[in-house]
Amino acid sequence: MVEIFGIPSQALFGQLLLGLINGSFYALLSLGLAVIFGMLNIINFSHGAQYMMGAFVAYFLLQYFGLNYWVALLVAPIVVGCFGIAIERLFLQWLYKLDHLYGLLLTFGVALIVEGLFRNQFGSSGQPYQMPDQLVGGQNLGFMFLPNYRAWVIALSLGVCLTTWFIIERTKLGSYLRAATENPTLVRAFGINVPRMITLTYGFGVGLAGLAGVMAAPIYNVSPQMGAELIIVVFAVVVIGGMGSIMGAIVTGFGLGVVEGLTKVFFPEASNTVIFIIMAIVLLIRPAGLFGRRG
After folding, report:
1. Which pTM does this prediction carry?
2. In this predicted model, what pLDDT tens digit does every residue of 14-30 receive, in sequence order?
3. Are 241 and 290 in contact (CB under 8 A)?
4. Which of 15, 122, 166, 284 has the greatest CB tally within 10 Å of its CB?
5. Domain ranges across the chain
């Protein structure tokens, strides 16, 4: 067996694969957070609960309606996005001119309520979710075995992230969104309904969390706790990349997933804290984050 730095190659590349999978979810979730904060200046602490809701919508569609994974990929983000739109219209729209703390406290409360309701109904143990038949199995690459579904998760996450970045940074719609955060009065002068744009932006960011939940369902158990276990790490990723930075969320999400995977190989004791150590170092050197802009 080939060894790299004294470690079997299969073990090393296996951890790299796990790191890329974790990084896919970090990137997708932190992208949703970055979109919401960058466009609305709201710190959405309910993002983990909405990620969990996406997984449960996929589970409900399969268990009660017989609708498979591919349908859930389309339906779950819409359902979770509509839930986010309702929250924005009922509560968040009144907080935009207030301190960020108010939005954080509100969304934290929403997360506690949603997770509590699901936990009371389904308990803390997870529910299994069937992997799509088309993605069962894997490919033997010689130096490692690559499961088809894991490769799909990485490719889909990267595709969604880059498409979102292109829309926001390189299209007219994205320029309107960015302008609305700087000067909404001027944007209204062009006949654009800014409140509706803000609402749909929040729904889109929440929908990304729902999409990540569907993608995670076949890998992890569908559990009320799955979002709470991930959201703190995702917030650290967003802080490192720069609050509101789209490219920062993507690059740091995938990059920190790989770093975390390599740490499990070379220094397992630090694997649970390495992201937070990096966050502390980045904040000392560059408080705005790696890709963030100074206020």
Report:
1. 0.93
2. 888 889 999 999 999 99
3. yes
4. 15
5. 7-126+145-285
